[in-house]
């Protein structure tokens, strides 16, 4: 089975590719955006910092990507998403325009030059950071936890009706971490495809 024919391939499940699954027990984009706007100092133009807290692979980057799109489409706010592992000096052009919303992913991996640049040109409204541990000076917008319900919701969205996640969990072959679980479901689909191809070869 080719990578693009496997529904759990990275091109289909990379951060942002899957819709934000509020039905898995997480807050909706509307409620998160409303919380930010209510506490962001929009009336006095004072930037405010809030954080999305959670372990690796739980959906922090996906939430940042969808929040950025939500603010632009539904709130009329300009946004800039910065990732620590992919920071580029070209973002300077966007920073000097002072976007309304600055979303920072992988902040611990930002080089010193990037940190200085972000301090020199803060956003006009607020900052949303994705972190593993909450900062004392920032308000927590959402705490994301890896749950079985989230993994089932992800699997059902990627491969509706397959019940793959439930079968792997019964066989104790599925991690509790959503990102790792998606990789494991990719491997399971590949194995099943190989078995089917072998069976067809034997029958032909």
What are the SSEs and their pairings?
Blueprint (H helix, E strand, L loop, with lengths): L9 H4 L15 H11 L8 E6 L6 H15 L4 E5 L8 H4 L5 E5 L6 H9 L5 E6 L7 E5 L4 H11 L5 H7 L7 H26 L1
Parallel strand pairs: 1-4, 1-5, 2-3, 3-4
Report on this model:
This protein has 8 helices and 5 strands; from the N terminus they run ααβαβαβαββααα. It is of the alpha/beta class and 204 residues long. It has 2 domains: 28-143, P-loop containing nucleotide triphosphate hydrolases (Rossmann fold); 147-203. Strands 2-3-4-1-5 form a 5-stranded parallel sheet, with helices on one face. Strand 3 (101-105), helix 5 (112-120) and strand 4 (126-131) form a beta-alpha-beta unit. The model has no long low-confidence stretch (mean pLDDT 84).
Tags for this model:
alpha/beta; 204 residues; Rossmann fold; 13% strand
Number of helices: 8
Distance between the termini: 19 Å
Major beta sheet, specifics? 5 strands, parallel
The share of residues in extended strands comes to 5-15%
Topology as H/E string? HHEHEHEHEEHHH
- Given as residue ranges, the uncertain stretches (5+ residues, pLDDT < 50) are none
Quantity of strands, as a count: 5
**What is the global morphology?**
elongated
Rg from alpha-carbon coordinates: 20 Å
Structural class: alpha/beta
**Average of the residue pLDDT scores:** 84
